[in-house]
C-alpha cells in the first residue's frame, strides 16, 4: 500500500517495528488468511475468531461493484439503500452489525486486539456506539486503520488514536517550502 503499486501474488509484507501497544493483549483475528497474515506481520500472536470473519457477499463475492451494478442494478440500489437488504444471498449490513454487537458483548475483560476487515470494523463501530444501521456507510476504514474502543459489555466508547508523525517526518519537514510555512497559522 505504501508504494501505491498494484499488488503481486508474491509480495511480502515489510516487517513492522516493535509496537508497544500490542504487548500483553489477547490477539484475535478473522479466520481468512489476509487477517492471519496481517496479525503475524504486526507481531501479534492471534487466534482465528469466526466472529471476526468478513461480511458474506454471497454471489457477488470476487466481483467489482461496477460488474455487479452492470448485472444487477436494482440489487445494488437496494443493498446501498437498505441495511437489511441482501440481494446477493449473503449477509446483510444489518446482520453484520448485529453479529458484531454480539461479538463485542461476549468479549472477556482485559485488552483484546482484533485484526479484521474494514466492513467488520465499520459494523463494530456502529454496534458499539449504538448508531442507526444507516450510519454504516458513513464510516470509512482505511486498510491497516486503527480504531480503539474502550469499555465492556454493552457500554463502549470510541477513543481516537493519537496522531504520530510518519517514520520519516524529519526528512519531510526539511522538504516543506519556507513560503508554505510563512502562510501557516
Automatic annotation (TrEMBL):
<dbReference type="Pfam" id="PF00300">
    <property type="entry name" value="His_Phos_1"/>
</dbReference>
<feature type="compositionally biased region" description="Basic and acidic residues">
    <location>
        <begin position="162"/>
        <end position="177"/>
    </location>
</feature>
<feature type="region of interest" description="Disordered">
    <location>
        <begin position="162"/>
        <end position="185"/>
    </location>
</feature>
<protein>
    <submittedName>
        <fullName>Phosphoglycerate mutase</fullName>
    </submittedName>
</protein>
<feature type="region of interest" description="Disordered">
    <location>
        <begin position="1"/>
        <end position="29"/>
    </location>
</feature>
<dbReference type="InterPro" id="IPR029033">
    <property type="entry name" value="His_PPase_superfam"/>
</dbReference>
<dbReference type="InterPro" id="IPR013078">
    <property type="entry name" value="His_Pase_superF_clade-1"/>
</dbReference>
Amino acid at each position: 500500500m505504501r508504494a501505491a503499486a498494484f499488488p503481486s501474488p508474491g509480495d511480502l509484507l515489510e516487517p513492522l517495528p516493535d509496537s508497544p501497544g500490542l504487548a500483553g493483549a489477547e490477539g484475535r483475528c478473522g479466520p481468512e488468511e489476509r487477517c492471519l497474515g496481517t496479525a503475524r506481520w504486526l507481531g501479534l500472536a492471534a487466534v482465528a475468531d469466526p466472529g471476526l470473519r468478513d461480511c458474506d457477499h454471497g454471489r457477488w463475492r470476487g466481483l467489482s461493484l461496477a460488474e455487479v451494478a452492470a448485472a444487477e442494478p436494482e440489487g445494488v440500489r437496494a443493498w446501498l439503500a437498505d441495511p437489511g437488504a441482501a440481494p446477493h444471498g449473503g449477509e446483510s449490513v444489518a446482520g453484520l452489525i448485529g453479529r458484531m454487537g454480539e461479538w463485542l458483548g461476549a468479549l472477556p475483560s482485559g485488552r483484546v486486539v482484533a485484526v479484521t476487515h474494514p466492513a467488520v470494523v465499520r459494523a463494530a463501530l456502529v454496534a458499539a456506539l449504538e448508531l442507526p444501521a444507516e450510519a454504516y456507510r458513513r464510516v470509512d476504514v482505511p486498510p491497516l486503520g486503527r480504531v480503539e474502543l474502550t469499555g465492556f459489555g454493552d457500554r463502549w466508547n470510541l477513543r481516537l488514536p493519537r496522531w504520530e508523525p510518519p517514520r520519516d517526518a524529519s526528512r519531510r519537514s526539511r522538504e516543506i517550502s519556507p513560503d508554505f510555512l510563512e502562510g501557516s497559522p
